Amino acid sequence: MQNPTETTPGYRRYLLGLMLVCLIVNFIDRQLPAILLPEIKKDLQLSDTELGFITGLAFAIFYSTVGIFVGRIGDTFSRRNVLATCIALWSLATAASGAANNFVQMAAARFAVGFGEAGLTPIAHSLISDLYPPGKRATAMGIYTAGVPLGLLIAFLAGGWITEAFGWRMAFFALGLPGVLLALVVFLTVKETPRGGIDQLVDTGKPPPFWQVFKTLIAIPSFRHCCLGTSFTGMVYTCIQTWGPSYLSRSFEMSIGEIGAWLAPTTGFGGMLGTMIGGALADKLSLKNPRWMGWVPGIATAVGTLFGALAFFTYSWWLAIILIAIPLILLPVHLPVYGTILQGLASVRMRSSFPAISLFIAGMIGLGLGPQLVGVASDLVRPFAGEESLRYALAIIVPVFGVWAALHFYWGGKYIAADFAKARERG
């Protein structure tokens, strides 16, 4: 075990910054296909259902299921080694996506990306929670999850520019391969921090049986509601960021470069502020009333969903871009807060397993089901809607699941104080 004196304020800042970089690279590789879909569709002659699969289920199936095993490994062995291996895998798989010549090859590459990316969230949440105490943890998680919109910014902007200049295949190569160097940095510089010490929790040295972990988590009311809240919020967010560029391309005949240039700055920097302010606000409000841990993301999701839905009822391209940007700024607020909730509910050797189990549920619903539903709905209405089929599909799916998500966050917030107290007793 590492000497506690090695965990200095400087190292805490370094680790948080490094995890932020890891998440940025993670989301570049995850979301890059979204800006490339129009070109991939044209080049590989794919239907919207097939595009929905490679951006949704092909990624989510492995991302969600493998995450459980990676979380279990992270609660048992060196988190640094697991994370470095996962980064190298997803980076190489992203580059391999650029060599795909048909639907099957592209789906296989996205399977591998999901396999590798499954390791980041459980490990990063565990490492950060061993360095930042309650009261500062949501703020730290907010800084970390700023990597989501920043990764989206780079994917949209760089992906659009590279595609217009060199083609969509080069975008995968250029943005995928640098992750191998990041894996090396993680392996050489990350330390295995003492588990649970900052919360004065007892580390037994090995995780409890998996089914005990699962039964403990699923029996917590705040988890059940907030997990569904984050699942459906993730579904809305993924639907908009995955299909939004294609909607702008088809309905307003905008080029890939134009879409990236317009969406990247607002969604990237705006989303970064959303996660950081959302995490800090949840920390501050929850000191007086822990229910705000559920209510802050619930309010952000409700407001973001309202504006996001309106984006698909307008026939003005500039208004559509503004309305699409608002949910991409507000919906990520749930990420740092939900991560903090999970760590507050977890015992020492459950801190990787809790987010991994949650990842399975939220990943399959939010990352897998959302883009697939939009793709299927778009193909179903295409015979009478033509190129406007995406407009109708998104106009139906976004408000339904966004309202559903906000309600679950509200209900989950009512149980958080009692559930946190029970978690401290277990620890």
Structure description:
The chain is an all-alpha fold and 427 residues long. The chain has a single domain (7-195, 208-426), classed as Growth Hormone, Chain: A (Up-down Bundle), CATH 1.20.1250. Helices cover 81% and strands 0% of the residues. The chain contains 18 helices and no strands. It has helices spanning 9-44, 48-74, 79-97, 103-117, 120-129, 137-145, 147-166, 168-176, 179-189, 210-218, 221-252, 256-288, 292-310, 317-330, 334-345, 353-385, 389-413, 416-426. Helix 3 packs antiparallel against helix 9 (179-189) and helix 7 packs across helix 8. The longest helix is centred in the N-terminal third of the chain and has 36 residues, at 9-44. The protein is globular and about 60 Å long. The two termini are 20 Å apart. Residues 1-5 have low confidence and may be disordered.
